[in-house]
Amino acid sequence: MTLQTIGRRRRPGTRTIAWRAVAYVALIAMSATILLPLGWMLTTALKPDFAPVFTPTPQWFPTTDWEWNNFARALLDPARPFWRYTLNTVFIVTMNIVGTVLSCSLVGYAFARLRFRGRETLFAILIITMLIPWQALLIPQFLLFYNLGWYGTMLPLIVPSFFGNAFFIFLIRQYIRSIPVELELAARIDGCNQWQVFRHIVLPLIRPVLMVCAVFVFLDSWNDLLGPLVYLIRDEDFTVAIGIANMVTSREPHLNLLMAANLIMMIPATLLYFLAQKQLVGGIASVGLKG
User: Fold this and answer.
1) Residue 10: partners with Cβ closer than 8 Å, 6 or more residues away
2) How would residue 67 be classed by pLDDT, with cut points 50, 70 and 90?
3) What angle, rounded to 10 degrees, do the helices at 255-275 and 277-285 form?
4) Of 73-77, 167-171, 232-236, which range is least confident?
5) Dihedrals φ, ψ of 152, to 5°?
6) What pLDDT is attached to residue 163?
7) How much is the pLDDT for 239?
8) Stated pTM of the model
9) Over residues 233-257, mean pLDDT
10) What is the DSSP string of 52-107?
11) Rounded Cα–Cα distance for residues 160 and 156 (Å)
12) Buried b / exposed e across 259-274, counting CB within 10 Å, b at 16+?
């Protein structure tokens, strides 16, 4: 069998190419329905002030108005300092990611590898806490942070992340249990202690699942409105979500500026997804379900 014959066999046939073309056309058509709201947002963001937005025939894509300065106006409005709001949000998001990754990786490793009395009972209690609705914890948490003197600061939005999250602990614990224990035993034979095994062996191997946790924490913190609304009282401490909410509740909301601000605030989450797409999909797909 010659190389030329092998090359001919590997070429896709006409029927295969046709099916692929049909599949791509169908995917493009379905994605267009998802992108239509974004097109309407962009069309509204590029309209001048007091231009009609809700027309009898919806304008899904911009055709006549191209007011690109609306994006600068939305960011640089003195009444709503979005740059300050963005810095506050980035700080809160960064601290939450650091706290969640540190605490959940340590606790998840302890539940997966360390043997101690009551381990399974504690893990069962941890899983049960996931059934408690967050609405039931809202008032007790507020009273706790108020008595600690943290009301009006960012601490209630940051400190809880350093005490772990039940879902992420479960995710990391299951992922670690899918890693061969022989790797850790080899490190112990070479003289590594428990912390060195975790730091140099386990932590590099669980980067995919840590990336999954980081992305989820980023999206949750970036879009969080209720937490900052409850605990923050000073304008210089507000987050992006509160800034956009204030634009909605104003007496004469400029929908073009509102849509411009929304589009700008979607950029970080979109970039993060595209940059971490491979690790995100791989981390979710490879999470072990070992008992």
Assistant:
1) none
2) confident
3) 60
4) 73-77
5) 90, 5
6) 94
7) 92
8) 0.82
9) 82
10) --S-SS---S-SS---THHHHHHHH-TTS-HHHHHHHHHHHHHHHHHHHHHHHHHH
11) 7
12) bbbbbbbeebeeebee
CA distance 114 to 65: 63
Residue count of the chain, please give it.
Answer: 291
Q: For residue 140, give both structure tokens.
A: 């007790």
DSSP the chain: --HHHHHHHHS--HHHHHHHHHHHHHHHHHHHHHHHHHHHHHHHHTSPTT---S-SS---S-SS---THHHHHHHH-TTS-HHHHHHHHHHHHHHHHHHHHHHHHHHHHHHHH---TTHHHHHHHHHHHTTS-HHHHHHHHHHHHHHTT-TTSSHHHHGGGGG--HHHHHHHHHHHHTS-THHHHHHHHTT--HHHHIIIIIHHHTHHHHHHHHHHHHHHHHT--HHHHHH--SGGG--HHHHHHHHHHSSS--HHHHHHHHHHHHHHHHHHHHHTHHHHHHHHHT-----
